[in-house]
Write a structure and sequence with these properties.
- There is one protein chain.
- By secondary structure, this protein is of the alpha/beta class.
- It has one domain: 3-Layer(aba) Sandwich (Rossmann fold).
- A 7-stranded parallel β-sheet has the order 3-2-1-4-5-6-11, sandwiched between helices. A two-stranded parallel ribbon has the order 7-10. The chain has a two-stranded parallel ribbon with strand order 8-13.
- Helix 7 links the parallel strand 5 and strand 6.
- Helix 6 runs parallel beside helix 7, helix 8 packs across helix 10 and helix 10 crosses helix 12.
- The longest helix is centred in the N-terminal third of the chain and has 22 residues.
Length: about 325
Amino acid sequence: MSVLVTGAAGFIGSHLSEALLSQGREVVGLDNFNDGYARATKERNLQSALDCERFRLVEGDIRDEAVLRTLPEVTAVIHLAARAGVRPSIERPTLYMDVNVMGTARLLRFVRERAIGSFVFASSSSVYGNNRTVRFTETDRVDTPISPYAATKKAGELLCHTSTHLDGIASICLRFFTAHGPRQRPDLAIHKFARLLARGEAIPMFGDGSTSRDYTYVGDVVEGVARALKWAEGNPGSYEIVNLGGGRTIDLARMIELLGEAMGVVPRIQRLPTQPGDVDRTYADVAKARSLLGYDPKVEFEEGLRRFVNWLQGQPEAL
């Protein structure tokens, strides 16, 4: 069966494309190679997938209906493409709304017109805002986003629900918690900090270092997405929201310390004010993912850091 993966050249999208190909699926990768980071980096991400004859890359934008009409027949869609990042969304809110909301709406119309039955949507833990529960569960209220990015992801979940209700599409919204590992986007903290450490520069630490994140290894994320696809294919007309996290939190100061240890460097810290839009912490309850999908994150944060550092040190152009 053929699957459309939007955002296929990205961090998660490229790993996912490889995983689906390894399962024997045909994959159509759609990516517009936007200016979020260097095109050359995204092209390197896709090197392995492009070597497989069952992978087809289409360069285009999810908002471009002419591009969508040219896509080959697929039986399912995994929608990862988005303008990502909390802080940039504060600077460019209308762009984020256009790409993340209007783009998703156009893609769902494409799914309806093609009578595609399965839709997997990449949402985000940012929809929880400054949730005060001990662990974030899918039943928590998420109507107080604190960034435009978070608001667009909540809007995407609502659009998926509407399509399930009106069109009978099986849709599952996956709330990703900070993914890390090889090919991580260069704007994300671990990657950015690692480059600074390699150059002997100070690490900018926003706040007192007590903010924390549920870091999730990319291989575990990809396994969860692949399982969500199988669930959607087997449950026509159903709708679910599921956390994909690691089930453990690491605070910012400890993350910097562990990254320094993995790189053999003692970090120098530049203390800065807390950034607007950043949540205090994320912490996933993954009980639903375990029961519904059989999801079982395996890679501990320290091991994931080591794998990332080994990858980065083999990518001199990334430093």
